[in-house]
Specification:
The chain is an alpha+beta fold. It has helices spanning about 5-10, 15-25, 30-35, 35-40, and strands spanning about 60-75, 80-95, 95-100, 110-115.
Length: about 120
């Protein structure tokens, strides 16, 4: 949903999009690859970016995998229940540590809680 309507209404963060892919049945390893090695390869930067190795730039995001009952929506309002969410804990960028601040929702980083009808 990284479209103009999606960005304005339904996409709140990269980690929330990653949770959507977990909800679609992708494994955590596949989802992490979609955000690291795969983009580096597409950009032709796989020798420098996208994975941790000696001599490479080591920018790291530490994520917490949480279990719960959430719902995410697409741009036409269709909801999908998900049971896993990724929440940022900290980032290391060029050796500097940054703790995650409050997320894009009033309640933080987790997606919208599912409320039974």
């Amino acid at each position: 949903d990284l479209t103009v309507p999606g960005r304005r209404a339904t996409v709140h963060s990269l980690v929330e999009m990653m949770g959507r892919f977990l909800g679609l049945g992708f494994t955590l390893d596949q989802v992490i690859g979609m955000c690291t090695v795969n983009p580096a390869r597409v950009l032709g930067e796989q020798e420098r970016l996208g994975s941790l190795a000696v001599g490479r730039q080591a920018d790291i995001s530490v994520l917490d995998v949480r279990q719960g009952d959430w719902v995410v929506y697409d741009t036409v309002g269709e909801g999908m229940r998900i049971s896993q969410a990724l929440v940022p804990v900290l980032t290391v960028k060029r050796g500097q540590v940054f703790e995650a601040e409050w997320g894009p929702h009033p309640w933080g980083w987790e997606p919208t809680a599912y409320l039974a009808p």
